[in-house]
Amino acid sequence: MIAADRPDRRAAKLAVIDANGEIRHMPRTALAHLLRPGDLVVANDAATLPASLAGRHDASGETIEVRLAAWLSAGDPTRFLGVVFGAGDYRTRTEDRPLPPALEPGDRLTLGPLVAVVDEIAGHPRLVRLRFTDTRMAVLGGLARHGCPIQYAHVPEKLALWDVWTAIAAAPAAFEPPSAGFTVDWAVIAAWRRRGTEFATVTHAAGISSTGDALLDQLLPFDEPYSIPAGTAAAIARTKARDGRVIAVGTTVVRALESASDAGGAVRAGDGVARGRIGRATPLRIVDAILTGVHEPGESHFELLRAFGDDAVLRRVVRTLAQEGYRNHEFGDAMLLERRPARTAASAAAA
Question: Where in the chain is the domain with CATH 3.40.1780.10?
């Protein structure tokens, strides 16, 4: 069991990096008293689907694993983008997993009680657009009975569904856990509110973090639907009006809020789709700081961090956190990174 309140999680580390690149180390429990009155914390309340499905490629009879990776139509549980592997399971490193048998449009995949049809090979032997032949309710029931959480080899214990649900999990929309949310529980939220720090949520369909193929990983993150409640949009407007900070819990929240923002710095409530990457050249309109895991250069999550900090600062952060023994997976340690000051036209010209 890898429950979110397990003792080693409660003893996890937190690195706090301010806008000038200064690093402080503290226990993650300090998060309850670290933020300021007037700040707003926004977290992703998406629950994680059991999105790994073991099964068979009917044409060849070979064993496969399908990892559902993205919605093709928001909220439609019969059509997905999927990453397909050959024989094996999470105990083999993702990058060492074999390719699936040669897939063709029209191929049937028997996945426990469910049957899916390959509609298209999406530019890579592992990446497919697929549809389930079952009804919506049958697909949801089949996922619940047969699916498992997507898992990677660095966690040797088999994950249960509750291991990948955060304390605030609500609608099942994510394919992997919005893992920065493991830092947040109801006791922390209550402590924030006592200090005058607001808390709000979005629902964002967090996608997969690795496909096992370097070229395919360059396409990550895939398009991800999100929903922003009217109350969250209003809380952001209040926070900006009083010069408070908006702190995103995880990269998915950054993607949702920045995708829903307009040129005037307002966030539109409602449904949308986050497309493309946020990176070094992306101006942030809404989010002032991010609470996230420890990410490595080359990952899509790390690319997003480049919108918050200079490359020299981020290199120093990576080096320092490695020296301090920070863990860098979804059940690891955390960092709070404050956005660097916006560059003026003069400073940009001098750079």
Answer: 7-48+158-342
Q: What is the pLDDT of residue 347?
A: 43
DSSP 87-126: S--TTS-GGGPPPPSPP-TT-EEEETTEEEEEEEEEEETT
Cα angle at 126 between 121 and 131, to 5 degrees? 50
Task: Tell how strand 224-228 and strand 270-274 pair up.
Answer: antiparallel
- Predicted TM-score of the model (pTM): 0.93
Alpha-carbon separation of residue 16 from 289, 291, 323 (angstroms): 10, 9, 15
Q: How far apart are CA 82 and CA 67, in angstroms?
A: 6
Classify domain 7-48+158-342 at the CATH topology level.
QueA-like (3.40.1780)
Coil vs helix vs strand at 305: helix
Helix (H, G, I), strand (E, B) or coil at 207: coil
Question: Averaged in consecutive runs of 10 residues, what is the pLDDT profile of the chain (351 residues)?
Answer: 47 92 95 95 98 98 98 91 96 95 98 97 96 94 96 93 96 96 96 97 96 92 96 98 97 98 95 94 96 90 94 96 93 94 47 43
